[in-house]
Design brief:
Layout: E1 4-9, E2 14-15, E3 20-27, E4 32-34, E5 37-41, E6 54-56, E7 64-67, E8 73-77, E9 81-87, H1 92-103, E10 109-121, E11 128-141, H2 150-159, H3 164-192, H4 199-222, H5 225-233, H6 237-249, H7 263-273, H8 278-281, E12 285-289, E13 294-301, E14 320-326, E15 329-338, H9 339-343, H10 349-371, E16 389-392, H11 401-412, E17 419-422, H12 424-431, E18 456-457, E19 460-464, E20 472-476, E21 482-486, E22 490-494, E23 503-515, E24 522-526
Parallel strand pairs: 5-11, 6-11, 12-21, 16-24, 17-19
Antiparallel strand pairs: 1-10, 2-3, 3-9, 4-5, 6-7, 8-9, 10-11, 13-14, 15-23, 17-20, 18-19, 20-24, 21-23, 22-23
Length: 530
């Protein structure tokens, strides 16, 4: 189930006499209490920058103030967050919002989004969620900051890798903390009034001790002592990964090749790989499965509609579909480490090893997912999927016209161009393109080079990968592609294999594949070799 969530951004708004309203709807890296957890939004989390977004008053879709498609709403990400500038309409609503903002009656904004990816950290007193991929649907000024829906927040917590027991324990610990905070405030007030002793104050102190005890008991119920200690020493995502996996992932014998990470940890594993993977970070759908194969329907021809008269037979026919079968393939890496290397670093070295192995898997997955060919133990990459559209150029691009043509090819089949992937050398070549007046085409303001580089082409984000040939460029609708991932992905360690060498084995394994049910949602541009 996809949850639509709302968050407040209590930042000051500004307006001018031309009725342009400016503010921040999204603030990056600002921890905020959301019910039973805290939350922050990563600076790279906004994934649908090219989509149409509405600006509304107070989240009411009937009170539209502007939209990106018409050019009346501009969204600009920077180090603070996502800034919005909206040209308020010359309507009663627009004039009212303008006047209320000038008077200071409106303070703050809010935005509505869908979270596609998040990461969870349990090293603190309460869980912390970092939103790493989200789709912004709507934003704008509000008269009262929006508080998250309790049900949605609960579901977000459950999407983390906490068990139901842990979730209940966390909520109980939070409730006890809130009661304890209130009691502390009451005690401080009483002491400030000169009341140092008394039966009522002693009762409050006893009640405070009881709440602190209950909170400690609830936290103890969440993790084993060894794991709590490990998590308390570690803060980064990679560190947390090792803290959570070290106890349960050590193999008990050399023959346990079937050992695997329980399903609740697979999302954390993949999330840590995503920043290094062009494909995973491009917005493709992610499917987690326990099965050795995953199947999805493929529509090969659409229904045939027709206008009909009253009580006439409804038209039929035209529809045809089949099944696409996808088999996640194994990609892995391993190494034998000396026990001195691991033990002398108090185990911290395994965190660096895990991050390095995850990055290696991410890059290996990218190489196959972008340009790989099908084989006995490999899946076909995006550029080699049968049925994708192709656009053969006769010369190196001299302007952005080939991209406009590729985008049009996708739109002709009702697909939306959402990402462009190319070799770094090709991107460097495109950065040198200029118009007839000498202005750089890909600078942020389509002006001089001092405007800065805009990592997009005609509004579509660009990602670079060395695994795409310099003479190949991929353009695709990420919503039509799937990364299918087996839930037995794992980072594992074992001392058994290195028993006679005093070594510790480490390995990372992932089973994954890319599926393109709608091959027409991909355009492959080819450029003749120089």
């Amino acid at each position: 189930m996809t949850d639509i969530e709302t968050r407040a951004a209590p930042q000051p708004l500004s307006t001018d006499e031309s009725r342009k309203l400016s503010g921040y709807a999204v603030v990056f890296d600002a921890p905020t209490r959301i019910g039973a957890f805290t939350e922050s939004i990563a600076y790279y989390a906004w994934t649908n920058a090219s989509d149409d977004v509405l600006a509304t008053w107070n989240h009411n879709p009937d009170n539209v103030l502007g939209r990106t498609r018409s050019g009346t709403l501009a969204l600009t990400p920077n180090k603070t967050g996502i800034r919005y500038d909206v040209d308020l309409p010359d309507t009663e609503l627009g004039r009212s919002v303008h006047e209320l903002t000038k008077r200071g009656d409106i303070y703050g904004s809010s935005f509505t989004f869908i979270c596609d990816e998040d990461q969870w950290d349990y090293s603190g007193e309460i869980p912390h969620r970092t939103v790493t991929a989200m789709r912004v649907i709507e934003l704008g000024p509000v008269h009262t900051p929006a508080y998250p829906d309790a049900t949605v927040s609960a579901r977000a917590l459950e999407r983390g890798n906490m068990s139901k027991v842990d979730i209940d324990a966390a909520r109980k610990a939070i409730a006890e903390s809130e009661r304890a905070d209130k009691l502390r405030a009451d005690i401080r007030t009483a002491e400030a009034d000169g009341e140092k002793r008394g039966a009522e104050l002693d009762e409050k102190r006893a009640e405070l001790d009881a709440h602190n005890h209950e909170r400690a008991a609830s936290l103890s119920a969440m993790k084993s002592p060894g794991e709590r200690s490990a998590i308390g020493r570690k803060a980064s995502a990679g560190d947390l990964l090792h803290a959570k996996l070290a106890e349960s992932r050590n193999l008990t014998s050399a023959g346990t090749a079937g050992a695997f990470t329980p399903a609740e940890f697979s999302k954390t594993f993949v999330d840590l790989m995503a920043p290094s993977s062009v494909v995973l970070s491009s917005g493709v759908n992610r499917v987690a499965t326990n099965a050795s194969e995953w199947r999805t329907p493929v529509v090969t021809s659409d229904f045939t509609p027709a206008f009909v008269g009253e009580l006439a037979d409804l038209p039929t026919g035209g529809f045809a579909a089949g099944l696409l079968t996808v088999k996640p393939m194994k990609i892995a890496t391993s190494e034998m480490l000396s026990s001195e290397f691991v033990n002398d670093s108090d185990g911290v070295s395994l965190n660096a090893i895990s991050r390095s192995m995850l990055r290696t898997l991410a890059l290996g997955f990218d190489k196959q997912a972008l340009t790989g060919t099908a084989g006995a133990d490999k899946f076909a990459g995006i550029s080699n999927t049968p049925g994708i559209q192709t656009l053969a150029l006769t010369a190196e691009p001299a302007d952005l016209a080939p991209f406009a043509e590729a985008f049009g090819m996708l739109e002709d089949v009702s697909a939306v161009p959402s990402i462009v992937v190319m070799n770094p050398a090709r991107w460097a070549q495109l950065l040198g393109l200029k118009d007839t007046t000498g202005r750089q085409l890909l600078s942020a303001g389509a002006g001089s080079g001092t405007d800065g580089i805009n990592r997009s082409i005609l509004g579509v984000p660009v990602k670079v990968s060395p695994y795409v040939d310099v003479n190949t460029i991929l353009v695709y609708d990420a919503s039509e592609l799937y990364a299918v991932i087996r839930k037995d992905a794992a980072f594992e360690t074992s001392s058994d294999a290195g028993f006679f060498k005093d070594g510790i084995g480490a390995r990372a394994i992932m089973r994954a594949a890319v599926a393109v049910p709608n091959a027409a949602a991909v355009v492959k541009l080819t450029i003749p070799a120089a």
